[in-house]
Amino acid sequence: MLKMIDNSQANYASLLVNEESNVIVLFSYNTPVAMSVVGVHFVTDKRYSATTNRHIKKFVGNNEFTVTTQTAIESWLHSS
Length: 80
What we know:
It contains two helices and six strands; from the N terminus they run E-E-E-E-E-H-E-H.
């Protein structure tokens, strides 16, 4: 079951998609662009708008992150 974590900005939502493994996915303009898996952050390598980049920066905060492909984020989301 999906659980909204944060939708504090327009076109920004982070959703808990797998509570057992603590997976959170960031959506910007309805597109998954980053995710956190047990506190490890992954962000898309695809370039989007300045607003989406701000969304990603807010989601990641001061944490380290790994850049991954957009396809990998989408594939992981659809497999969970």
